[in-house]
Amino acid sequence: MPTFEALALARDVGMDLVEISPNEKPPVCRIMDWGKHKYLQRKRQKQQISHEISLKEVRLRPTTDTHDREIKINRAKKFIDQGHKVQFTMLFRGRERAHPDIAYNAFKEIVEFFGEDVKIERHARIDGRRMTMVVAPAKSK
Question: What is the model's pLDDT at position 141?
Fold first, then answer.
């Protein structure tokens, strides 16, 4: 169909003539609503972005009370249920750095709390004044 006829047909319907694949012989065109098409493309793109896995952080201290620690662990459980990775960070001050075993025990309790729901991506390790551990949701969920 000649281009001018296709343009006239598109105008009659109240839509646009859009070139789909210009490299083909002959080029392929489609009659469509270009604004609606662009809107749907942006909408699909936003939906794809929202499904990315992000890293959430939960900060603790060696002196954090058990009840406060449970609250933070429950918040981390919500993150994991949503499909996010969670980084637990234990911050040390002063003489607390001399007792890393307290932090290791706290991280061990956290892993025991989650059980099979998570897999440990990065085991607990000390980096200066902080100790970090990263857990991710298990694939079976």
Answer: 45
